[in-house]
Design a protein that fits this description.
Oligomer: single chain
Distance between the termini: 31 Å
Largest sheet: 2 strands, parallel
Structural class: mainly alpha
Helix content: 40-55%
Length: 112
Amino acid sequence: MEVDFYQQVFQVVKLIPYGKVTSYGAIAKYLGTARASRMVGWALNNCNIGGDNIPAHRVVNRNGILSGKSAFKGEHVMKDLLESEGIEVVDDQVKDLKKHFWDPFELDKELQ
DNA sequence: TGCATGACCTGAG
DNA sequence: GCTCAGGCCATGC
């Protein structure tokens, strides 16, 4: 197994702008493995445990739900981090997901 | 080697 | 418009 996949995931997550969030599917799609969106979650889970500075709190599922909050030290940590970035979180869910959503492909657009 | 599970997504009813 | 079931890939036992 190439760890490149994980590195790619970490890279994309690190590139998420301040105050923005994205979804596992978007990242998976960006990496060319749209059907392996579950692996993105695994990668983030491992990276979070690893202790790397990955803003995994900016990654939510399609509905904007903080499905990975349990991977953090505390239930409130993820919510706290998001709120500190100006993102409203209600009931473990990002409010106005459309407003704060960030697509990795936008990065390519900017680069091009 | 094989089965079961997971921070999900998409399509059909 | 919402709910249910299937599928995808990698990892662990």
